Predict the structure.
Amino acid sequence: MSTHLLRPPAVLVLSILTIGLTTASVAAQSQSDLRRENQRLRAMSDELTRELDAIKTDLEVLRTENDRLSRLLAAAARTVSAGGTTLPPPQDPAVSIDETKPGASPRALFAAIAADYENEVAGREVGDPGDPQRTAYLRHIERWASGVNRQMKQPVSWHVEAIGTATRTARGFVLRLRAVDPKTGAELGDPFDVFLTRAQASRLELHLARTDAEALVLTGTLRPRIHINEDRMSEGAFNILPLVGPFAEFAFGVSVQTLLPPSEEQEEQAAIAPTEPAKDGEGR
């Protein structure tokens, strides 16, 4: 038998080599794709974990606020039944901050969102309950509220005063604050609650023991919480949550980064500020 008949054709050998190389290349590419996908999923998981922590914090604050509002509502009902009257609010002294910026204060945020609502619904009819016009109006402002809650999330630094003592919760403490003007002391909106971890609360207590300052500096992330309530077209006798417009209830939260006396906050910022490199001829 001729020996050349036992040798595989050159074309077949080349085909086998080509297939092997292609398979190896595809396998390497697949491994690279898997690594990238794993990294993407891990980043997504980390982001979802942070969002879940923020939601848990908001829930604790909201539970405390709900208890407080329930007591306030009961007290207001007793006042109305007893024939109580409402006094006009006192005039605030001048403020030294620019409240045209939504993040300047709680009431600046309210004013900005109320103005945005008015522009958003200009020319739209509210309609009557149950009709298509009302349904379309509600759907429109629900989309608007979702956008506002997302777009007006921002870092803030407010001067605040504590009201009462902190309330202990399962994960930390809830403290009631009011924003004030850093120079005149004018109140800059309704009081609000913030959540403090045990570490933040202990640190605040330590700093307060070293100073008699009444004002504090709150830094953190402002999160608007506009909620659409189909049953509230206008404000009633018990305006627990103010309306920025028909059906749109106004609330917000602040995820606390630091809460310290002003002098301690200045030292904190100086400590974390990046050091500028020395210019030629300096520092020598």
